[in-house]
Design a protein that fits this description.
The chain is mostly helical. The protein folds into 2 domains: 49 residues; 215 residues, MetI-like (MetI-like fold). It is built from 10 helices and no strands. Helix 3 runs parallel beside helix 6. It is elongated and about 75 Å long.
Length: 272
């Protein structure tokens, strides 16, 4: 028995060391990629020989530091993130409800599918221009984020519900397994990877749509508004700096989503 435990511990240590080595290698490759990007950026800016076209990386960095230390920076970032989160939460709630209903009911799926296709096919710029007529400026990014993310989440949830083995569900009902247990042990594990996958895809596209709608709607505190102002006054370095901030926030969201996705996988393995 002791030998078996010792062997398992040795295997776990070997796996940890292996995973740590892979992680270190991945970080090193990411660092090299970042350095290459900065180098290419520097070469292009030097060749352009004009900060009105492409500012140098060091110039953009100094402007970035100045923006981060400004009084309105946190408010600007906070309100943009808040609009993105509101749009995401609304799309998640609606996507779960319609996605589950469409997965369980063929008639509802036939009815809702043209709506999802229409929303997906409509150009985002058209929806933004219409939303500018219908809604207040602060609500336009929320509305756009919702419309962009909702079809993706709803479709993924529907596919997740359909992936559940119907024979297992029928067998569980035959043996009078409680409905809550069926949902917890059959439906939720099957749907969870589809939800996290849908969230990952929707969040990336939705974040871009929120920023784009802010550029046009121009709320008082918004990253998109700052980008528009920078472009209007030809402050290219500031425009690039705000772009870097938007990309960094998107990266943070992506890391959080991946973390939740990994935890979901572990949870599924534990209940299997």
């Amino acid at each position: 028995m002791k030998g078996f435990i010792t062997q398992n511990r040795a295997k776990r240590r070997a796996k940890i060391i292996k995973d740590g080595g892979i992680l270190t290698k991945d970080r090193a490759m990411a660092a090299v990629s970042f350095i290459v990007i900065i180098f290419v950026w520097k070469v292009i800016s030097h060749a352009a020989a004009s900060e009105l076209l492409i500012p140098a990386p060091e110039k953009t960095f100094f402007v970035l530091v100045k923006l981060v230390s400004s009084e309105e920076f946190l408010l600007t970032v906070w309100f943009t993130v808040l609009r993105g989160l509101l749009g995401f939460l609304l799309s998640l709630a609606a996507g779960l409800m319609t996605g589950i209903a469409a997965g369980l009911n063929k008639t509802f799926d036939v009815m809702i599918r043209p709506v999802l296709v229409a929303v997906r096919a409509t150009p985002v710029i058209s929806i933004i221009l219409l939303a500018l007529i219908w809604l207040a400026t602060d609500l336009v990014p929320v509305f756009i984020g919702f419309l962009v993310m909702y079809p993706i989440i709803s479709t993924n949830v529907t596919e997740g519900v359909r992936s559940v083995d119907r024979e297992l569900v029928e067998m569980a009902k035959t043996y009078r397994v409680r409905t809550l247990r069926i949902i917890r042990e059959l439906y939720i594990p099957a749907i969870s990877p589809f939800i996290t996958g849908g969230i990952s895809n929707a969040a990336g596209i939705g974040w871009k749509a929120v920023i784009a709608s802010e550029v046009l709607s121009q709320p008082r505190f918004a990253i998109g508004t700052q980008m528009h102002n920078s472009q209007s006054y030809l402050m290219v370095a500031e425009l690039v700096a705000w772009t870097v901030i938007a990309v960094f926030l998107s990266y943070i969201f992506e890391v959080l989503i991946r973390f939740v996705e990994k935890r979901t996988i572990v949870w599924r393995q534990e209940i299997s």
